[in-house]
Amino acid sequence: MLDSPEFHRAARIRGLEISEIVQISERAAARKALGHDVVALSTGEPDFPTPEAVIAAAHKAATDGKTRYTPTLGTAELRAAIAADAKARPDQVIVSCGAKQVIANAMLATLEAGDEVVMPAPFWTSYADIVRMAGGSPVIVSCAMADGFKLTPAALEAALTPRTRWLMLNAPSNPSGAIYSPAELSALEAVLLRHPQVWVLSDEIYEHLNFIPFHRLADVAPDLRGRLLTVNGVSKAWSMTGWRIGWGIGPVDLIRAMGAVQGQVTSGACSIAQAAATAALTGGTEVLDVRRDAMRARRDLVVSALDAMPGIECAAPDGAFYVFPRITGAMQAQGHATDAAFCDWLLAEHDLALVPGRAFGLPGHLRLSFAYAESELQTGLDRLARALNGDT
Fold first, then answer.
1. Is the pLDDT of residue 277 over 90?
2. What integer is the mean pLDDT of 143-163?
3. In angstroms, rounded to a whole number, what is the distance separating the alpha carbons of residues 324 and 359?
4. How close are the terminal C-alpha atoms of the chain, in Å?
5. Does 314 score more than 60 pLDDT?
6. Residue % of the chain over a pLDDT of 90
7. What confidence tens digit (pLDDT) does each residue in 168-199 have?
8. Contact by Cβ (8 Å): 120, 324
9. Ranges of CATH 3.40.640.10 domains, the chain
10. Neighbours of 88 (CB within 10 A)
11. Neighbour-count burial of 92, counting CB atoms closer than 10 A to its CB (0-12 exposed, 13-18 middle, 19+ buried)
């Protein structure tokens, strides 16, 4: 038998692995399969069901025969609904298989080798890997807890170079929940107007999960619209993670370039899922208001409990469904040099799955998702408290 040739990864994905969030979730699932009573507060997936009206729309689309290929940029109905909501035109919209594909399309369509992408840390873990895969270089700007984990104009100015192609903003933020005020966005706009080569990607996927007023960048900074890509979708607010529908809104030339990438990778997104997303966008916000109130109660429960634990400092997030507490004191008290070692210990010894801050570019913290029932959150918080107090 001939020996198989040695496998070589392409240079563009050397060092690229499944995200640490997914790895932790898979490890937690493996422990559960072995009989351990694991509490996993590690994933960003709301526990609410997809709204009934959305499911009904999907069922009707299927029975009506809307099961064929869709246009690469999305169905006319969904693009129109997105455009109406964003005060844009349908030709400025691309629909993709989730918001992650929108971001990948944009980076693959625009980055040359060595182009720089500024990303405030903490940032969603996939940002940096997508940029590297597209040939770009992430420029990570640490944002202090004292600044609300938000990018300041001075820090942005210092990070920009002639090689900067994009700034990635995410608000409400994963993992910190930070939301920028109109004044803060205008201050960043003033910096960007001095650097016309820099495009802006505004990831607003958690837009409707806000506990203080949220303002879209496109509305606050209209002078940036000619180089702004807004990313959004139905996954988080409408509990439609598995439907895989996200979208981008931006200048027509950018949208066409992103469509060229998508057309050679996946073509158009699922027809049934697009019908469901159209129903979500056009069906009113009452269900979102109820779920936001539930998330606020969960947030308050988690923040109050964490603030009472030794070595943990936790600020209440303004949006999304995560807290991102500083844990350096707890790490030191338990003899762990890194946040990753601390989280490994929690899973191995206390059957509690959380995500270390290093996964988001800012070590010394951890992310806890409160997109779970209060009973499950309380169990997880009790386990963390016992671990920090040395109880078994």
1. yes
2. 97
3. 12
4. 54
5. yes
6. 94
7. 999 999 999 999 999 999 999 999 999 999 99
8. no
9. 68-282
10. 17
11. buried
How many C-beta atoms surround the C-beta of residue 265 within 10 A? Answer: 13
Q: Which of 19, 247, 235, 27 is nearest to 126 (CA)?
A: 19
How many whole angstroms separate alpha carbon 252 and alpha carbon 87? 15
Instruction: Report the distance separating Cα 74 and Cα 71, nearest Å.
Output: 5
pLDDT tens for 27-65 read: 999 999 999 999 999 999 999 999 999 999 999 999 999
pLDDT in tens, 212-263: 999 999 999 999 999 999 999 999 999 999 999 999 999 999 999 999 999 9
Instruction: List, for residues 74-116, the tens digit of each pLDDT value.
Output: 999 999 999 999 999 999 999 999 999 999 999 999 999 999 9
* Residue 263 near residue 340 (C-beta atoms within 8 A): no
From the candidate CATH numbers 3.40.640.10, 3.40.50.300, 3.40.50.150, 3.30.565.10, the one assigned to the domain spanning 68-282: 3.40.640.10
Count how many Cα atoms sit within 13 Å of the Cα of residue 109 in the half-sphere of its side chain: 21
Q: Which CATH architecture has domain 11-49+286-388?
A: Alpha-Beta Complex (3.90)
Identity of residue 112? E
pLDDT of 126 above 80: yes
The pTM score is 0.96
At which residue do the structure tokens 């109660």 appear? 297
Q: Which two tokens stand for residue 291?
A: 């779920």
Integer Cα distance of 145 and 325 in angstroms? 9
Structure tokens that stand for 230 in this block: 């807004």
Which helix (H) or strand (E) element contains residue 120?
A: strand 116-121
Please list the residues that pair with 199 across neighbouring strands.
166
Residue 382 backbone class (left: φ over 0; alpha: ψ -120 to 50; beta: rest): alpha
User: How far is it, in rounded angstroms, from Cα 274 to Cα 57?
Assistant: 10
Adjacent-strand bridge partners of 272: none
Q: Are 83 and 73 in contact (CB under 8 A)?
A: no
Residue extent(s) of CATH 3.90.1150.10 domains in the chain: 11-49+286-388
Q: Find where tokens 């691309």 sit.
A: 94
What are the b/e assignments for 102-112, b being 16+ CB within 10 Å? bbbbbbbbbbe
Which pair of structure tokens corresponds to residue 324? 């991102």
Q: β-pairing, 199-203 with 164-170?
A: parallel
